């Protein structure tokens, strides 16, 4: 009897064609609607492996029902959607997809920074709505990026990739991280500093920190008030690192100049969310790694992790190594 694998989103047939020959594979038949919890629970009872998305909550209830489950392969870098403690008790391997999305996510992060600072979305809407009647010196004038100071909160691999892109704009680089990165300091001239100093000195603040107990709601109203009034805030990590009401209030009060957001506390975000009504906010639907090449690589890595575990081998990107 072939091992049973359940995939929580509809993936391209060609991506799993070889997979189907070796295993009994079933997919949720939608690529834009999350699998309902009751279906995930039912499938987990039967599955030897689950291939999940970051929006799927693999909690203790799911794991306790999964009598045969050996691996949850999360198609994301983050894995805060999975109860690691419950997985450890059940002896279930948890894997993610790091590295393959680093540069793609860094590209998108820097694109957000540029879009907010140069008012790209505002300008595109301005011309599409027929509002461009004449040229004027300060029509939709934004902020320069070159030679400014970029502060990166969370200098992991994606943070390092963003720093490399910023060096091409001759930006001054500050960073705050749990550990120092001497190599990045030496190669790019990045300067390690406290969170407080970074807030005060940076013209652009990019959050790329993972979601932990320490980073949850780390960006509060008081934090935004410590930034320059001209500062632009970018979040491409997890929505829950930001108090969204505090961000809205800071933007409305002019305490910071703008924000670029690829993640939110609740996803999908409601169309009536107050942040979406602000012209100095560029909001994207969590597309940091959304290039065809990278999403394909993420699928392939998740599949490779499942194959390894079901073949009795060590997975390529094991999260819960203990």
TrEMBL record:
Annotated ranges, domain D-isomer specific 2-hydroxyacid dehydrogenase catalytic: 6-320
Keywords associated with the record: Oxidoreductase
Keyword hit for Oxidoreductase: yes
Superkingdom, natural source: Bacteria
Gene3D superfamilies: NAD(P)-binding Rossmann-like Domain
InterPro entries per the UniProt record, alphabetical: D-isomer_2-hydroxyacid_DH, D-isomer_2_OHA_DH_cat_dom, D-isomer_DH_CS, D-isomer_DH_CS1, D-isomer_DH_NAD-bd, NAD(P)-bd_dom_sf
Location of the D-isomer specific 2-hydroxyacid dehydrogenase NAD-binding domain: 110-288
CDD domains the UniProt entry points to: GDH
PANTHER family the record matches: 2-HYDROXYACID DEHYDROGENASE-RELATED, GLYOXYLATE_HYDROXYPYRUVATE REDUCTASE B
Family statement: Belongs to the D-isomer specific 2-hydroxyacid dehydrogenase family.
Descriptive protein name: D-glycerate dehydrogenase
Organism: Bacillus xiapuensis
């Amino acid at each position: 009897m072939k091992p049973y694998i359940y995939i929580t989103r509809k993936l391209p047939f060609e991506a799993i064609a070889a997979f189907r020959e070796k295993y009994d594979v079933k997919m949720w038949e939608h690529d834009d609607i999350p699998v309902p919890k009751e279906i995930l629970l039912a499938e987990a009872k039967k599955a030897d492996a689950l291939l999940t998305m970051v929006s799927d909550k693999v909690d203790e209830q799911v794991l306790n029902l999964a009598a045969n489950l050996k691996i949850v392969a999360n198609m994301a870098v983050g894995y805060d959607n999975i109860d690691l403690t419950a997985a450890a008790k059940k002896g279930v391997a948890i894997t993610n997809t790091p590295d393959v999305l680093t540069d793609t996510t860094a590209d998108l992060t820097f694109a957000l920074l540029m879009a907010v600072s140069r008012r790209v979305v505002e300008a595109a809407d301005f011309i599409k709505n027929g509002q461009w009647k004449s040229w004027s010196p300060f029509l939709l004038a934004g902020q320069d990026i070159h030679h400014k100071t970029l502060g990166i909160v969370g200098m992991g691999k994606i943070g390092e990739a963003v720093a490399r892109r910023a060096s091409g704009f001759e930006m001054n680089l500050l960073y705050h991280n749990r550990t120092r990165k001497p190599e990045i300091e030496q190669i790019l001239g990045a300067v390690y500093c406290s969170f407080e100093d970074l807030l005060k000195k940076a013209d652009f603040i990019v959050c790329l920190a993972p979601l932990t107990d320490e980073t949850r709601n780390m960006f509060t109203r008081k934090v935004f008030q410590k930034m320059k009034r001209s500062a632009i805030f970018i979040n491409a990590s997890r929505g829950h690192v930001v108090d969204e009401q505090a961000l809205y209030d800071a933007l409305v009060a002019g305490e910071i100049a703008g924000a670029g957001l690829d993640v939110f506390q609740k996803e999908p975000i409601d169309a009536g969310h107050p942040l979406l009504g602000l012209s100095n906010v560029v909001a994207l639907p969590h597309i940091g790694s959304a290039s065809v090449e990278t999403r394909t690589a993420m699928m392939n890595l998740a599949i490779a992790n499942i194959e390894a575990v079901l073949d009795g081998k060590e997975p390529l990107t094991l999260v819960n190594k203990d």
